[in-house]
Amino acid sequence: MSAQKWAVGITGASGAIYGVRLVRELLRGGHTVHLMITEAGWQVFRDELDWNTDDREALIREKLQQDAPGALHYWGMRDFNCPAASGSYRCDGMVVIPCSMGTLSGIAHGASGNLLERVADVMLKERRRLVLVPRETPLNAIQLENMLKLSRLGVTILPAMPGYYHKPQTMDDLVNFVVGKALDALDVPHELFRRWGE
């Protein structure tokens, strides 16, 4: 598969490891990644992964890029110079993983209140792939209605619900299942989990 250009958003929903693993896999595959992390996302890096986020650029190089062959570009949430914020840029699609309910609501209502929401809006208007990985439970009616609205627009709603038929043995196995499903939604080959029947 030839290298592609993907936008990835990481928000403040629990499950930051999903976003980290997805970025690593895309870069390992030689793809270009335009990465956006919300302030709450940075907080979850600290709270869930125990990462020191004082030097964000150094942290991204150390924890995400890891000498992978792909190209990683990190964009601040107010930096609308990001190429993916324009429909004329040939971005293959976007994944927001994990996706908070606040971000999902902003996307569903076309708020474009920050770079992440703007890039998602571009994916919608250009009819490109958009995958949202919400990590919340239980869900209220407003959240469900927002997901239904986006699904009707062609957005893939991919809740972070790991499978168990592949008999996971570790936490990594559970993370890899969800990330693998997100890569499947992008048609990006991977070997993160054993498929049913294999």
Automatic annotation (TrEMBL):
What species was this sequence derived from? Brevibacillus aydinogluensis
What the entry lists under SUPFAM superfamilies is as follows: Homo-oligomeric flavin-containing Cys decarboxylases, HFCD
Q: Which GO terms describe its molecular function?
A: carboxy-lyase activity; flavin prenyltransferase activity
As for what it does, the entry says:
Flavin prenyltransferase that catalyzes the synthesis of the prenylated FMN cofactor (prenyl-FMN) for 4-hydroxy-3-polyprenylbenzoic acid decarboxylase UbiD. The prenyltransferase is metal-independent and links a dimethylallyl moiety from dimethylallyl monophosphate (DMAP) to the flavin N5 and C6 atoms of FMN.
On whether Flavoprotein is a keyword of this UniProt record, the answer is: yes
Annotated Flavoprotein domain residues: 5-186
The record's top EC class is: transferase
Q: Which family does it belong to?
A: Belongs to the UbiX/PAD1 family.
Q: What is its EC number?
A: 2.5.1.129
Entry protein name: Flavin prenyltransferase UbiX
**Record keywords: Zinc included?**
no
Reactions catalysed according to its record: dimethylallyl phosphate + FMNH2 = prenylated FMNH2 + phosphate
